[in-house]
Predict the 3D structure of the following.
Amino acid sequence: MPGGNLIDLRRRVRSVRNIRQITRAMKFVAASKLRRAQERVFSARPYANRMLAVLNSLASRVEPTGHPLLELRDAEKVMLLVVTGDKGLCGAFNSNIIKSAVRFIEKEEVNESLSLTLVGRKGYEWFKKRPWPIKHQYLNIMSRIDFSYAQDIAGNVIRYYSETELDAVYLLYNQFKSVISQEIVLEPLLPIRRLEQVSEQDVLLDYIYEQPPAVIFDNLLPKHVETQIFRAMLESEASEQGARMTAMESATNNAEEMIDKITLHINRVRQASITTEIIEVVSGANAL
């Protein structure tokens, strides 16, 4: 415990109490936002997962040239779509996703042909100082996520891929598991993944289309990309609030421990001061 007179120590206690009040309030705000974010995530997951399963199955039954978003290419020009938060004070939430993005870039050795689309201010503030080109950035949208943002992001990604400016698009985000647990997920967004063929019979199976397949693909595949991006943003929002709630709870507990330690030190200083005064009085009386 650092030294100091009683006035400085009491001033330090007041300062830590003010910080504790702020962190406790931020914890309650994060808990309130987390409940709403959880509801949105749990509502979006079934639709997004079922659409992904259907399209994976459908893509395995048609020729890759049936639609530009199904076309398989050598991954020479790659885009990484990274979803981070707009604010800090949420522990290692943002730094972990940035580290995963850097590991992907270095592992895939796509530095020269890589482009980034960044959702969230924290990711943009970090990557803008690095040599990798940023194609698009979407800032200050994670606190008020709307499907129109996902449509805008998906529109740019689809256009680049359809015009062969990109060969592969990957999506990196934090998936919400619980208040204290988030899992970093890296998944291919484009082209649409194809299921592995289990037997020859699976190859012969096909759907009966009420409309031409091209018409269905033109309507369904862009909607799929929009939905997956929107779900990733919702997952990231819930994960961020859970991480912030945990971080603020830890900060509040640390502040309380610090207050107890400083208060104990103040009492010891006061006791030592009183003891010294008593000794001086007794010594003076004995001298007389």
Observations:
- The chain has six helices and five strands.
- The two ends are 39 Å apart (CA to CA).
- The longest helix spans residues 213-287.
